[in-house]
Structures are given as structure tokens and as C-alpha cells.
Amino acid sequence: MTSPPTQDAEFTRKVALGILSTLQHKGLISAAEVDAILRAAMPKPAGPLAVTPASTPPKPDASRIRREPLPPPVFDIEL
Fold it and tell me: How confident is the model at residue 46, as a pLDDT?
């Protein structure tokens, strides 16, 4: 059975924080580096969406339209 996405996200967040905390306590990364990693991982606030007018789809190229089906493939296999 799968868990809800919110539980998965919470578990992932706690594991990441635990790893960063362990690396910091062992002296492998500094507190400033931990803060920078956490800031970079934060979701960006959503800005207003730009509204663009819908464009008409391009017309198909007449030279690329097949009028007849392709013949079946031929396999030349020696046994």
C-alpha cells in the first residue's frame, strides 16, 4: 500500500534534514552551507501567470501526407 504524498514529502524532508545535520555535526559542511542548501530547496513563490493569446495550429504540409499505405516490411533472415 502506498502512503499519501504528504507523508512521503514529510518523510523525505526529515531524512534530508537528518543527513544535513549529520554532515554538519561531523564538520563536513558548515552551518552557512546547510542554510544555503535549505534556501535553494525551498519552493519559489508562484508569480502571476503570463497570459498569451492562443495561436492557430500550423497547416499540415501536403507533401508529407501519405495517400497510400506503405507496403509491409520484408525480413531477409537466413536460418
Answer: 72
pLDDT tens profile 30-71: 999 999 988 888 777 777 777 777 777 777 776 667 678 878
Q: DSSP secondary-structure letter at 27?
A: T
Whole-angstrom CA distances from 42 to 59, 70, 71 are: 43, 53, 56
Check if the beta carbon of residue 19 is closer than 8 Å to that of residue 13: no
CA distance 36 to 5: 26
SS3 2: coil
Residue among 45, 47, 43, 44 at smallest CA distance from 9: 43
In sequence order, the 6+-apart residues with CB closer than 8 A to the CB of 30 are 24
Q: What is the pTM of this model?
A: 0.49
∠ Cα 30 34 38 (to 5°): 170
